[in-house]
Amino acid sequence: MFQSMSHLEQQLYFKLGEREQRVFTIHDITSILKISEQHARNLASKMVKKQAAERVKPGLFVRVPESVILNKHLYKEDAVLIAAKSLTDNFLSYYTALTIHGLAERYTTQVYVTTLHHQRPMKYHEIQIQFITVVPHRFFGMKTMEYSHQKIAVADQERTILDIVNRPTYAGGWNEIISCLKNLEHVDWGTLLSYIKKSKNKILARRIGYLLDNLKNVSLPRNIKKEIKIYSGDNIYYFDSAKKGVLEKEWNLIIPQTIHEAFYDY
Questions:
Q1: Cα–Cα distance, 69 to 73 (Å, whole number)
Q2: pLDDT band at 2 (very low <50, low <70, confident <90, very high)
Q3: CATH topology of domain 7-72
Q4: What is the mean pLDDT of residues 223-238?
Q5: Is the dihedral of CA 231, 201, 181, 116 positive or negative?
């Protein structure tokens, strides 16, 4: 049952409310109240016991709204906000980025975060937050967006295309990826080309070229198509690890039948 908060606890609780900040850290507490880290940890622990906050992991908390406290309901925060606040030097990516950009086709219980730091997966209620660690030179292509009254870092649309084609398991597989790409309304082709070259992966370049060239909702410009072909060379590659299919001469890719079929109902 909710218990009365101390003056300092109330000060933090209502200050977070004024800022519309629903997810907070120990650093946020020290910054707002000008208290030591240990004091902040003790205060947060007491607020959790009083059901004014929920601990997601050590140092990361959800502010429980007043209406939930008063009505004694179970509260679940948006896992995207929790993931965005879980680490420094991170951005939301893969299928989560597809969702934020309005391209996703379904609801998922996975949230993906690209980060410079190794971090074990984290669970919040039924949501699994997966961290994908990259080296510094692959930490690019993100932007700050407004999401549910909060500022979050998320892969931009072109980085998202690069990511999901590179690691399809983090976006539901090829059929799901093609379905999501069919929702594209525009592409910054210059930015995408720069990301392709920055990735230094010729097979990835060829995959992206093939997929976007077969879409009807966006048109791959001739100059970009030419640049991708020049960059990726003349070798013949398999589209994916299945290593079977039919040669697509336009892109020198051996395409599995399932990939061809994903475009049939288009």
A1: 7
A2: very low
A3: Arc Repressor Mutant, subunit A (1.10.10)
A4: 96
A5: negative
